[in-house]
Amino acid sequence: MLGPVILAASRSDRMRRLVSAAPVTKPVVDRFIPGETVDQIVPIVRDLTDQGLELTMDVVGEDITTPAQAEAARDAYLELIDRLKPLELGTRAEMSVKLSMFGQALDAGHELAAANVRPVVEAAAEIGTTVTLDAEDHTTLDSMFAIHEELRKDFPQTGCVIQAYLFRTEADARRLADSGSRVRLVKGAYKEPAEVAYQQRHEIDKAYVRILRTLMEGEGYPMIGSHDPRLISIGQELARTAGRKLDEYEFQMLYGIRGDEHLRLAAEGHRMRVYTAYGTDWYGYFMRRLAEKPANLRFFARSVIGHG
Length: 308
Known about the structure:
- This protein is an alpha/beta fold.
- It has helices at about 1-10, 15-20, 25-30, 40-50, 65-85, 110-125, 140-155, 170-180, 200-215, 230-240, 260-265, 285-290, 295-305, and strands at about 55-60, 95, 130-135, 160-165, 180-185, 220-225, 250-255, 270-280.
- The two termini are about 25 Å apart.
């Protein structure tokens, strides 16, 4: 089980330095993170939307230690939104944000994160799009859900993410489905203890299906965050059973993973949204992509060997 080891490494400063310094790293990172600046990412946005895909944009970076850094993260999203405005994409390009970037872990972090994320949600609404609050480790979720609920009072399209491996998620899904929320369901990509989360893959998969059924049968808008072909097929069947039209749910996958499947689903008429991250502080995001799927780790290992 290499996943937990890699997730632990994602929090290691020593591993950060080693991986970041390795010559092979950047070409591999570029598979998952196609740019470091807004200037680099805007052509990617144009290209993907021209292919019939939709996007959710993530400015990477989580290790925020000062309020000034949190404000800089807020401003980076505001710059992105300003650059998206002339493209007139509306909800075809939305934003995904981690509240840790907005200062959630600092002193009075809940209030700080709430204050920093609101201008981003407001600016997104002004260009006809929205924001989804990403889920992080289980200790942050009560704060995230409270901020999500508050934002939805003024911006009801604000979405949030729930993680199938957490025991609490089935109850969270029922609440969110009843309230009509946009909800992205993922398996989960943080190292969580056995007291709060399923540890076995088959248990996580079964929980994913139960939760997705709840979302499909509810009043909200389900977003199926998975690259698993079996779960994608199950999601389609659950949507049909629930009587949902193709524009009443969507699939979401990461940039750089199963690109042909992105195009196949879009060609079939599905809403297919690509989670597209950019920025310079890529280490934590990159390590979680390796931990999520053995194929990603094999891809990295082959690149290392090939450049050794």
